[in-house]
Amino acid sequence: MKSILLTLVMAFLASVSLAQELEKLVKENQSFTLYLKQPGNPATAHQIQFDNDGATFQSDENLPLNIFMELAGDGEDMEIHFNLKAQEDVYFSLQGQLELNDLKFESAQMLLPGFWYRKNQRSPEKAPSVKTSNNWLVREDRMSTPMTALYDSTAKKGYSLIRMDVATDIALTTHQSGEVVLGGPTNMGSLGFGENSDIPYLSFAFPYAEAPHSYYRKLTLGDPVQSFLHLEKGDDLSFSYLLSKTEQENFSDFVAHQWSYSYDKMSPEPLKEQLFTDHEIKSTLTEFFKSSYMETQGLKGFSGVHLETATCEVVEIYEVGFIGRILLNAFNALEFGEANNDDDLVRMARNIMDSYAEYGFTDNGLIREMVDFRGEGNEPSIYSIRRQSEGIYALLLYFNYEKARGRNHPDFENKIQNLLTTILSVQQVDGSFPRKFDRELQIIDETGGSSPSAVAPLVMAYHYFGDRKYLDAAKKVGVYQEKEIISKADYFSSTLDAVCEDKEAALYASTAMYYLALVSKGKERQHYVDLAKKAAYFTLSWYYTWDVPFAQGQMLGDIGLKSRGWGNVSVENNHIDVFIFEFAEILRWLAQETGEERFRAFGEVIRSSMREQLLPRPGNLMGIAKVGYYPEVVQHTAWDYGKNGKGYYNDIFAPGWTVASLWELLSDDRTAKFFQTN
Fold first, then answer.
1. What's the confidence (pLDDT) of residue 410?
2. Are strands 293-296 and 236-247 parallel, antiparallel or unpaired?
3. CA-to-CA distance for 370 and 460, rounded, in angstroms?
């Protein structure tokens, strides 16, 4: 009993000490600037600071805005609550910085979930990174959780600042840069970080501002923007942040802690209204199969890339892996068609598989992963480990399904075994696979960030063909992955069109360890479980824990999109999408293996949010021309992929992969069931 009491007393004293430390930090290390604007004139800056009681701001000038700040700590964190009251009509912007003078910027790693990891050093200069500047302010709706966090890898501690009263309103503006007077209610702000003489700070702005650049299109940094909110005399408003401090052994532990902490604070709930069953959603998605089917010069498939959202007319591009996923969609169509006596689906699926068995490989055995028959036709001579792996994955599902029904395809299987031998020939000494190579297997891009995508088909091939060399190769990737990706928290360049930090790299890293765990035992299996968990936190950090605001007139807001559960894509491609595939299955498995209930719970948020929100269906096409063509490039922030911007889709999209992703989300435990068969 005495030891329990002593522990409780020590914990209480520690919490009191931390609360006092955070209060001191806010009072002594803060810097605030109030910007006032008279329309038609440049804004003026006014430095403000606490008075002696630490509650109200003081200035050497008479200002038209009273600003009050209240600090409230419960021992683990400190709420910073602002209340503003206009003494006369005013247009204002408030910005603040909290210096972290016990840390160093040089050894700091930053986290703006879904947008900034470490120093974004993998990103090119034309995307946000420290290559351009050490000081950044970023709109809250760019972040999967409105949080800025900074971790010092030498001091092994870090801080975070979370916007607690998440934004619900955003006004349309006529300009995306410069000093912008907002045309209506807006309670969205910005968060960021920076440094003064190597002393790092966390920063905020209300209403939103972006500096030193906005980011409005892929690899296009724009001029900074500062928005001003209008308050009439007597109006008041409030907003609040939560400041916390934590000690963690490394950046991975810091990210895991911050995701769990922010998840608890944001408390995202699954969407309550679910109109359709999983079967009904799949039935709707089959309309994509039936409408997009095409046959060209021997190949057969589904038209799922580079389509116009306004027409969804067939585009004769055959893409096996991401972003088309023809073979996985063919397997899905076959499985569903046979289960539901849909002869058309079965016919199309078998036609596709047979066409690829005959015409789908190059002379040296690679999958023809992308063939463009538009105009004179174009078949790139550069191949990727990711697309080859995704093609093998789909075909092994197909072979396993067929074999269970007494249908075998020995010649087709031989082609896949030959392909696997070819793939193994480009595996590097360190266990990695090059990102891209040419038809003669000469390496074009040696980057190893895509290596985990090869693990799933290799482990599946080991199980299906019974050949140990495939598992040995997969384990070599696992060693590389642990050493160069997971231990360094360096998840990058798994997408095909971006060289940067991205969600899919983390997702594939966690998925790879899941597959290795399924065929391992004892301590080795537990090791893979631990690595899958570590990578999963990074994956989850890309997924939204809140619903970003849209203005009236922005289509996504008008149709009621809730962003919670959707994932941002990458530092370069700053939009949300439904890339999930089998990750929901992995989250359930990790919850069982580790006892981390948040994994299961947030998996349900993802599932509820992605299933049907933007599902084009009869009578409700969700801004898409045809039923079943689930959209991608969902532009949720001030960024566009090329057209339209926040609140809309890009005009060109790739429903091939979105349909495949949702289908796997709705196919419970597909991977686990594969390994239960002989």
1. 98
2. unpaired
3. 23
Q: Rounded to the nearest 5 degrees, what angle is found at the Cα of 466, between the Cα atoms of 460 and 471? A: 55
Bridge partners, residue 203, by sequence: 97, 192
Q: Where are the domains of the chain?
A: 2-266, 278-674
> CATH fold of 2-266, please?
Beta-galactosidase; Chain A, domain 5 (2.70.98)
Of 562, 512, 570, nearest in space to 541 by CA: 570
User: CB–CB of 531/486 below 8 Å?
Assistant: yes
The pLDDT of residue 4: 55
Q: Which residues contact 403 (CB under 8 A, 6 or more apart)?
A: none
Determine the pLDDT at residue 479. Answer: 98
Whether the CB-CB separation of 205 and 138 falls below 8 Å is answered with no
CB-based contact 566:544 (threshold 8 Å):
yes
Cβ atoms of 454 and 471 closer than 8 Å:
no
This prediction's pTM: 0.96
Q: Where are the alpha helices (DSSP H) in 360-430?
A: 385-404, 410-425
Q: Cis omega before residue 380 (within 30°)?
A: no
Query: What is the four-CA torsion angle of 421, 427, 433, 434, rounded to 10 degrees?
Result: -100
**In CATH terms, are 2-266 and 278-674 the same topology?**
no
- What is the Cα–Cα distance from 176 to 566, expressed in whole angstroms? 25
CA gap 293, 281 in Å, rounded = 19
**Mean pLDDT of residues grouped by 10 in the chain (678 residues)?**
49 62 90 95 92 68 91 88 96 97 98 97 93 97 98 98 96 92 95 97 98 96 97 97 97 98 97 95 98 97 98 97 96 98 98 98 96 84 95 98 97 98 97 95 92 97 98 98 95 77 94 98 98 98 98 96 97 96 97 98 98 97 98 97 96 98 96 89
Token representation of residue 33: 């600037």
Residue 11: predicted pLDDT: 45
278-674: CATH number: 1.50.10.10
Give the amino acid at 239. Answer: F
Of the candidates 116, 111, 145, the residue with the CA atom closest to the CA atom of residue 129: 116
Backbone angles phi, psi at 369, to 5 degrees: -75, -25
Query: CA 285, 289, 290 angle in degrees (round to 5)?
Result: 110
Q: Which pLDDT does position 10 carry in this prediction?
A: 44
Q: Kindly tell me the burial class for residue 373, based on how many C-beta atoms sit within 10 Å of its own C-beta (0-12, 13-18, 19 or more).
A: middle
Contact predicate 656/285, CB 8 Å: no
- Round to whole Å and give the CA distance between 658 and 656: 6
- What is the token pair recorded at 421? 């031998």
